[in-house]
Design a protein that fits this description.
Elements: E1 2-7, H1 30-46, H2 72-75, E2 77-79, E3 82-85, E4 102-110, H3 119-134, E5 139-145, H4 156-163, H5 169-185, E6 188-194, H6 198-207, E7 214-217, H7 227-236, E8 239-242, H8 252-259, E9 281-295, E10 300-314
Parallel strand pairs: 1-3, 4-5, 5-6, 6-7, 7-8
Antiparallel strand pairs: 1-10, 2-3, 4-9, 9-10
Helix pairs in contact: 6-7
GO molecular function, one term: oxidoreductase activity
Domain NADP-dependent oxidoreductase: 97-240
InterPro entries: Gclm (IPR032963), NAD(P)_OxRdtase_dom_sf (IPR036812), NADP_OxRdtase_dom (IPR023210)
């Protein structure tokens, strides 16, 4: 069994790979996917063999050097049973200023088909990677997105009604109890949830020991918050934030395409239908974590990136 850890690095320094129309609120995971592809390509280029034609300034059609593609084992790094894609230069990690100058926000997406009993481990893995990447000890806000929950419908009233039947409250509370412990330890200052409608949020508030400070919801119009949800949030001091994130941000097929031998793939995984190089086996996405570092006195984002993890059950 191999753990795959994917990373984007700081997407704020990589240039705009996506341009969205002003006012759009369609859910998208394009930022994650494009940023991963960009980081893979940059690592492959950095570790590629130099051109041998003597013309060091010559560029290929894609604007990169014409040297041979870097073997996967050069631009990735294996540590025991974990494969980092791409390898990470931890010496160059960290923020420009002292951590106290920033507000650090993390959103943890727990993905479908993963065991509930493993969620504690997933949260620890994600937070440890982010702490190491940013050189911090404490996260200001951790928002958890549970699988199988959405806030979608022809109108906000319908979305609120459908939401009440989604997810598994007992499983969500079991996960929340561990996050509460992180809060008590000082590792996380505030906790939040995503896609909780009025009924779900009301029940959750009654049963949770530490109440969520934030509830992120997807709305077609940010002014059309269902009155029951707004009432509950106001009564309990829960901040309602609008977002456009995908609920299932990294499906299995998308991950395999991202890491596979296709033209836009990283070449880490082999084509299961054809002979060739690459790792073989079943791959299961486990979690995705997005982190944001806001400069407090300027209100700008200095560092933004993603980590994602998956498990590969290798076969010959």
């Amino acid at each position: 069994m191999t753990k795959l850890v994917l990373s984007t690095g700081n997407v704020m320094t990589a240039g705009p790979s996506i341009i969205r129309k002003r006012g759009t609120n369609n859910r998208s995971n394009l930022e994650l996917l494009n940023s991963l592809r960009d980081n893979f390509a940059a690592a492959q280029h950095d570790y590629a063999a130099p051109a041998t034609n003597g013309d060091h300034d010559h560029k290929c059609n894609n604007g990169k050097g014409c040297g041979s593609p870097a073997p996967v084992d050069l631009w990735t790094e294996r540590q025991d049973t974990t494969l980092f894609i791409p390898r990470i230069n931890w010496d160059g990690a960290g923020l420009r200023d002292e951590p106290s100058q920033y507000e650090i926000t993390v959103k943890l997406f727990l993905l479908p088909r993963t065991p509930v009993a493993e969620r504690e481990r997933y949260a620890c893995e994600a937070l440890e990677l982010i702490r190491r990447e940013l050189g911090i000890q404490t996260v200001d806000l951790l928002v958890v997105s549970f699988p199988g929950i959405s806030f979608e419908g022809n109108c906000e009233w319908e979305a609120d009604k459908l939401n009440a039947q989604q997810g598994n409250l007992d499983e969500e509370l079991a996960t929340w109890s561990f996050l509460e412990e992180l809060h008590r330890q000082g590792a996380v200052k505030r906790l939040g949830v995503a896609e909780f409608g009025s009924e779900k949020l009301g029940t959750f508030l009654r049963r949770a020991t530490i109440r969520p400070a934030v509830n992120q919801i997807n709305l077609k119009d940010c002014c059309n918050v269902p009155p029951p949800l707004k009432k509950i949030a106001d009564e309990h001091g829960v901040e309602l934030n609008v977002h456009t994130d995908c609920t299932d941000i990294l499906p299995n097929g998308t991950l395999r395409e991202l890491l596979g031998p296709a033209p836009q793939g990283a070449g880490v995984l082999a084509d299961p239908e054809n002979p060739g190089s690459g790792m073989r086996g079943e791959v299961l996405p486990q979690w995705v974590a997005r982190y944001l570092a806001f400069v407090r006195d300027r209100g700008v984002i200095e560092n933004k990136g993603y980590f994602a993890a998956a498990e590969l059950e290798e076969t010959p």
